[in-house]
Amino acid sequence: MEPHETTGPAGQGADGRSAVDPDADLLAAYAAGEARAARALLERLGPRVLALATRMLGDRAEAEDVTQEAMLRLWRQAPRWREGEATVSTWLTRVALNLATDRLRRRRGVPLDTAFGEGVEPVDGRPGVEAGLRAAERAAALRAALAELPERQAQAVALRHLEGVSNPEIAAVMALSVEAVESLTARGRRALAARLGARRGALTLEDGDD
Amino acid sequence: MTDDRATPVPTGRGQETATGDALESAFAAARAEGDPAAPLPAGLMARLLAEAEAERPLAPGAVPGAPASAPARAGGIHAWLGSLLRPARQGAGLGWGAAGGLAACVLAGLWLGYAPPPAVEGLTGGVAATVFGAGDALAASDLLAPLDGGLDAGLWDV
To answer: Is position B2 within any domain?
Structure first.
């Protein structure tokens, strides 16, 4: 892999590997039976997993399910964990991303207002409430369009634009080259823009100006 | 929450710029629904901790339910019994249910030996008669007598 800039977590190299991965030390302690290591890992890694799933799914209950499943897989992986292949954070992001993508794509074919909560009427006319609803509708329309993208495009776009992850980090999570990630995100953006432009009223171009 | 690391909007004019703005607006709306800096909700944290505890491998030498600092006994009858009674899901143990069944079988065997029903007595007598023959010096009753005597003499006093 070619050298490139990174904005990854402290201690993590551009390729997602790390000579010093404190999460790997905690995971080894958990595998050795140390109960406190689990809480430390949850405090360090849990919020990011929950945020990723929430941003992708827009549903707190589903996001919590994804977080539980991802952490469960981490606990079961602990005795077999091999350092040097990926950081724990990168591995967990990959698992959570796959779980959330699977759920997102299962929504395809379900009516938008059922799957994404679109069409909710404002309970009062206050500008803040209306703006919040419009934002929720924009997010819901985005997720509906994201669900229709090819899986790898959707994942690269979600990491880049919903999580703000750097391309080298995305390359580590998705086991791709940085060039492939750049291509995926560019194509994904174009496909999203086309779908959102065609979607009835869910995303109006004027919203960006008010 | 907004994310400062949003992708730069592609440069362009007219429709392309407006579409890029709209897309950025949608990304920002979705990002605002999840905050990676917020601690996990207490309820979710409790569930996650419970699952982690259920999956946590045992520390070497640890006995389930015992304090973590209790020294493990190496070898001996206690260790053997402990390994038998360890819940089956945690290793090669039998669990209390299986151990209870084993104990019941032992007691039933002892009772049958001490006070065999007539059918069993007839069977053992018949087998002995067949093996040794009617004229053999060792009668079935002679073979069984020491055991009966042992039981009578004090096996139950142990």
So the answer is: yes
Rounded Cα gap, residues B99 and A83, in angstroms: 41
- Which class for B85: exposed (0-12), middle (13-18), buried (19 or more C-beta within 10 A)? middle
Q: Can you list the pairs that A89-94 forms with residues at least 24 positions away whose Cβ atoms lie under 8 Å?
A: A89/A9, A89/A12, A89/A21, A89/A23, A89/A45, A89/A48, A90/A12, A90/A16, A90/A169, A90/A172, A90/A173, A92/A45, A92/A49, A93/A48, A93/A49, A93/A52, A93/A159, A93/A173, A94/A173, A94/A174
Distance from CA of B117 to the nearest CA of A (A): 53
Q: Which domain holds residue B3?
A: 1-58
Whole-number Å distance between alpha carbons of A113 and B9: 29
A vs B, Cβ pairs < 8 A, gives 147
Query: What's the CA gap between B98 and B115, in Å, rounded?
Result: 26
Confidence of residue A9 (pLDDT cuts 50, 70, 90): very low
Are residues B27 and A162 in contact, defined by beta-carbon separation less than 8 angstroms?
yes
Encode pLDDT of A67-82 as tens digits.
999 999 999 999 999 8
> Structure tokens of B2?
């907004």
> What is the ipTM score, two decimals?
0.79
Of A194, A137, A131, A192, the C-alpha closest to A160 is A192
Which domains are delineated in chain A?
13-106 (1.10.1740.10), 119-210 (1.10.10.10)
Closest-CA residue in chain A for B41? A47
| Number of separate domains in chain B | 2
**pTM for this model (two decimals):** 0.62
Query: Are B34 and A54 within 8 A, CB to CB?
Result: yes
Is the residue at B79 inside a domain? no
Q: pLDDT truncated to tens, each residue of chain B (158 aa)?
A: 444 444 454 444 566 676 777 899 999 999 999 999 999 999 999 999 999 999 999 877 665 555 444 444 444 455 555 555 554 444 444 555 555 665 665 676 666 666 766 665 555 555 555 544 444 445 545 555 555 555 444 444 44
Identify whether B68 is part of a domain: no
Window 106-135 of A, Cβ < 8 Å to B = 135
